[in-house]
Amino acid sequence: MDESRRIWRDRVARWHRSGHSARVVAEQEGVSAGTLYAWSRRLGMKQSEYRQRSEKAALSTLLPVVVAPSGATARSRSTTLEIVFPDGAVVRVPPTFDEDTLARVVRALGGAR
């Protein structure tokens, strides 16, 4: 495999693993999104395969969750939930939260899809 092909294979793999759009990754890599798409097709690299792998990897890095018993005190129910991602991002969730919004935030930060 020639050097150019190897560089593009690695670049496309980084894009697929990242979960970001081609535009975002292309900007980070200093290339055009169209070229990134073209190389992905040329190399036969499907983004869905990488998403499945990265989801499995993300699941293996999750920490256990402890759920308070149903008789938990009012004080414990008013405690803010804190989610810490492997990259250091922290989401603090108040006791009254919208589940759909929380799910979108977790996905945006690279959590389970």
Produce a short descriptive summary.
The chain is mainly alpha-helical and 113 residues long. The chain has six helices and two strands.
Low-confidence stretches: none
Strand content: 5-15%
| Distance separating the two termini | 34 Å
Structural class: mainly alpha
Large-scale geometry: elongated
Output the radius of gyration: 19 Å
For the largest beta-sheet, the strand count, sense and barrel status come to: 2 strands, antiparallel
Order of helices and strands: HHHHHEEH
List the total number of helices: 6
Helicity, in percent? 55-70%
**Topology, number of strands:** 2
Question: What value does the average pLDDT take?
Answer: 76
Q: Major sheet: order of its strands?
A: 1-2
What would your notes on this structure say?
The protein is mainly alpha-helical. The protein has helices at residues 3-18, 22-29, 33-43, 47-60, 74-77, 99-108; strands at residues 81-84, 90-93. The protein contains 6 helices and 2 strands. β1 (81-84) and β2 form a beta hairpin.
Q: Descriptors for this entry?
A:
single chain; 113 residues; mainly alpha; two-stranded antiparallel sheet; 6 helices; 2 strands; 56% helix; 7% strand
